[in-house]
Amino acid sequence: MFKYIVKRILIGFLTLMVLATVVFVGMKAMPGSPFSRDNKAIPAATIEALNKKYGLDKPISEQFIIYMSNLFHGDLGDSISKKGQPVTEIIASRMPVTAKLGLIAFAFSIIVGITFGIVSALTKHRWVNSAITVMATIGVSFPGFLLAMLMMVIFSVKLGWLPVVGLETAQSYIMPVLALSFSPISSITRLTRSSLRDVMSSDYITLARSKGTKEIWVVIKHGLKNALLPVITYSGPMFAGMITGSLVIETLFSIPGIGREFTNSIQNRDYTLCMGLTLLFGALVIIMTLVSDIVAAIVDPRIKVDK
What we know:
By secondary structure, the chain is mainly α. The chain is built from 13 helices and no strands. It has helices at about 1-30, 45-55, 60-70, 85-120, 125-140, 145-160, 175-200, 205-210, 215-225, 230-245, 245-250, 260-265, 270-300. Helix 5 (about 125-140) crosses helix 7 and helix 7 (about 175-200) runs antiparallel to helix 10 (about 230-245).
């Protein structure tokens, strides 16, 4: 297990370095300048001074070496669009808002998705299974931002039940959480249903039933333990995505989180902020994927993670 974890950490580190290189090159290849936004005429002398201040007057190769050197020391640089505010400070101030919303959406997705999956796999009522199947199919094909806009029109504009801006009250979390959770719920439902159906037809389930074990304990103790392995594997990247925010959802609901900052950094050509947030997302995906693999190995000892 220890060798496996060290190996995955090293692979994750190399992946981050490749990601940093690709993002750096991609940002530099974008047309335009971060100092020429909104069609405003800026004197050439001012642009030259700003380029010198942020090191953009140096050759691309030298800029890359400086950036990677600073990155190894935990310095993500200063934001260009926010008057030199350190990227780490921006992340520290915005991350709690996004993380809270993401954790709520993650917990809601896991609970509802697993519940629907269990019901769909075990129900004897065809209409219940059909309803859940239709919901899951719509969920994986219906974009979250369309659901968000639909809910905004119905529950905010037409009915006036829910606030549409910010996260000031408990009610303000309802629409963003539903918009973030709809697709993950559908995916978890489908994974749980198909996996649980396969598990419940296994020989060891038949043996457990033959011993007189109550059906509910057969499902919980023997069925779910193995049926949830695909859900655990899926949950790692899903968790990373949720706690780093949704680019569109946070913008639609004017939530001052990481996702909204990421959108603004792209629009403003804020190189350092965009690269910092991209690396944050990549690091979280790598970490949560490793965590989900380890949890899956703990749940099912048959999974070998020592290679």
